[in-house]
Amino acid sequence: MKRIALVLGAAALLAIPAGLAMSAPASAAAIVIRGTVTTPIFAPGLPDDCRPGITGTLVGTDVVSFQSVQTAQGFHVAGTTVDSGRIDWSDGTYTIVESVDHFSFNAVGKGTTVFTQAHTDSGNTYTADGVFLFRTTFHLVEHFTVTDGDVTRVEFQRGHLFGC
Fold first, then answer.
1. CB 3.0–4.6 Å: which of 25, 75, 145, 157 could bond 141 by disulfide?
2. CB under 8 Å to 154, separation ≥6 — which residues?
């Protein structure tokens, strides 16, 4: 879900006409925008990748902090997404989850966009009585380059699931 939001945000920046984005004189000051957006998370019906047949409901919070810098040369957006929450599973167990994404988006030159994301999420699963069962961690680094609307390079540097 976060990846979709990031891609939509990047697409929104791309929707700015190239002439408008590049029309400022080279000596113009950069336009800097900083923000933080907090969103509640509610996701029922999640499958448990470690225990087939079990489903859960995630309740938590998503916090996106970002900075966007626009210059005559293009845009640079960088930020962090931090999620935290609890998944209550159909067998009575629960998982405390946390997720961190570091992302950057660059729209530079004529029609070239570069998107990079480093993602880590993890969760500690407990019995209904609070006894620790196991920890699961997932790491992923992604890199996409788009030129004139076509994906010209995709690189997944690491994608590992640890635990269960």
1. 157
2. 142, 143, 144, 145
DSSP β-ladder status, 31-47 and 55-71: antiparallel
pTM of the model: 0.71
- Consecutive sets of 10 residues in the chain, 164 residues long: mean pLDDT of each? 41 38 57 96 92 94 95 89 97 96 84 84 95 90 77 61 63
CA distance linking residue 149 with residue 34, whole number of Å: 27
Return d(Cα 162, Cα 120) in angstroms, integer: 11
d(CA 32, CA 36): 14
Q: Which two tokens stand for residue 40?
A: 């509640």
Task: Name, in order, each residue with C-beta under 8 angstroms of 71's C-beta and a sequence gap of 6 or more.
Answer: 24, 28, 30, 31
Residue type, 15: A
Interatomic CA distance for residues 117 and 4, integer angstroms: 12
